[in-house]
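fyi for ur records
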Amino acid sequence: YSTGVSSQPYSVVILDFNNDTQLDIAVASYGTSHIGVYFGYGNGSFMNQQIFSSGFNSHPFALAVGDIDNNNLPDIIATNNGYGNIDILMKTC
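which gave:
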């Protein structure tokens, strides 16, 4: 699965992000400054990447997941090397 031209994927996490009991993949794309999520069909294949921008030249580097807002749904947390900050994607998937 392509993460895009010059995307430079650095980190992945695997979890059921959309609560459909199928595993999904989130990717930190350093080169294109976005976080991509591939929603799984449950048969080893995935939908096309859904892209979430982390800001111009943010360069997301590492990903983690957790229920930050305590709603029993996973949130994605990304460290941004370009800005020296983090992004939290809550209930985006």
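The chain has no helices and seven strands. thats all i got for now
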